[in-house]
């Protein structure tokens, strides 16, 4: 990793501006990583900005954004005012899932840093590409980057980063190694407040009850795979949250959550902590991701999606 950190550090000087951006519907892993890199680049005396479009964010994200101060942001309305931009994309590598999928129009060069399984649709021509699917989260990498650089960060940023680490590992259950715990330890040393992190991750009672209701109506396939169909149009992050929750139950090793995400498309979110090959199923639905966490968006009908999932699991 030190090699990567040195390469990154050497890049910034060739540009007037550095913009850090993640995926659409950002979560704390994505946003916390943007903030971490932002702090590193600012510490080197460079102009840096975090790209946030700002609409349609989760309650957790809105709380996180308002908890940090002094960060310079850009979005589609003003990115055109900046020249000679190096873009650093984190936590995603498919252009269609970028927070702004037209961002390349504004940037001279770009770097991609991700921890998801590499997709064929990964853009070619980056200045630096680092995709390491064995990392628990983006936060893990960025934490080691900050540690290596000796950069200090605001306690609010460390808190968000700790929250991101917890979310991406589903509470230190998925892809968690000794380095993951070490990253958590570094973040606490950097000032992360465990109580505030808990506050940040809190959800409303209504959301909890709604989720419990969905979970109650889920079915189990082969005794270890939960399938949950949501009755209403939902946000993709809701699907992801429910898929995470399902994994906390006895005997459940994998989960699939399906819901309409707009008038024409269904979203599918899948999680696995065991040997169930969810990625194979998700690929059949045209999606992608990692072997522990993946998803798809498709225009197939609900009965066809259900059939593909159930048949593939039973096979
Ligand atoms: Mn992530």
Explain briefly what this protein structure is:
This protein is an alpha/beta fold and 315 residues long. It has helices spanning 2-11, 28-43, 59-67, 138-149, 155-168, 178-189, 194-201, 205-216, 236-246, 278-284, 302-314; strands at 17-21, 47-51, 73-74, 85-90, 109-114, 128-131, 219-221, 225-229, 254-260, 266-272, 288-289, 293-298. Helices cover 39% and strands 18% of the residues.
Topology:
Elements: H1 2-11, E1 17-21, H2 28-43, E2 47-51, H3 59-67, E3 73-74, E4 85-90, E5 109-114, E6 128-131, H4 138-149, H5 155-168, H6 178-189, H7 194-201, H8 205-216, E7 219-221, E8 225-229, H9 236-246, E9 254-260, E10 266-272, H10 278-284, E11 288-289, E12 293-298, H11 302-314
Parallel strand pairs: 1-2, 1-4, 2-3, 4-5, 5-6, 8-9
Antiparallel strand pairs: 7-8, 9-10, 10-12, 11-12
Helix pairs in contact: 2-4, 2-5, 4-5, 4-6, 5-6, 5-7, 10-11
Bound molecules: manganese (II) ion (MN).
The site of manganese (II) ion has 6 residues, from loops.
